[in-house]
Amino acid sequence: MNRVHDVFYPSQRFLTSASDLYSIxxxxxxxxxxxxxxxxxxxxxxxxxxxLIDCVGESVLIDAGAGLGVKRILExxxxxxxxxxxxxxxxxxxxxxxxxxxxxxxxxxxxxxxxAHKDDSGSITSLDERVxxxxxxxxxxxxxxxxxxxVLEANDYLDIGATHLNIIHTPGHTPGCISIDLTEKDxxxxxxxxxxxSTTGRLxxxxxxxFDLSAWKTSLKLLISECPxxxxxxxxxxxxxxxxxxxxxxxxxxxxxxxxxxxxVG
Length: 266
Prior knowledge:
By secondary structure, the chain is an alpha/beta fold. Helices cover about 25% and strands about 20% of the residues. Strand 12, helix 6 (about 215-225) and strand 13 (about 230-235) form a beta-alpha-beta unit. Helix 6 packs antiparallel against helix 7 (about 245-255).
């Protein structure tokens, strides 16, 4: 049975401490803003793409970055005209450090709730090997384990403000990878894919702890069956139209006999 999660938070005062940092963000559509990401120079090195969903009076973040760029991310939120204290929830697409490292600080600064899938929840709260903490340390990134407020399962959904988010369990990159389905204000179907699907056939980091190639291929098929107009991945460029055909390109590359996929290291 699906579960509805309505969340309410006390008003808090947001303390700025990054006014000396250069902050800029990107409005992608009327519903979605890119407010963090090292690939775009929006936040600190190591950060994944961090998206804000405008829920009309409230907002949701998709992922939290690696941890060094939280204050810049919140400055970007303000620059786009949103109150950081109106961030009600941060949805963590999976357990890797570049997506969860900033989560606990984000929670402390805004009071937002942190949510993730049950199959990655233990890794997130214990910072086990699936989080790739040693890789983070080599990059000078040290962070506290996030405390989760809600553990999701497949086909759960979140109602926040005027926005309905469907949770799609898309394992393969890690066991608890999720994608988030959103119908945007213009009626277009969008999916935030985390690291399970990038654009233009980019396969990205495949063989980390918890990797499952068969599950990954199945998850790609599932995303294609959702027929999204847009996809917003955890890294690299986003696809604002023709997303289903773009996912088919990734699926083709993943299953092509001439594609070499390294499934183990060491």
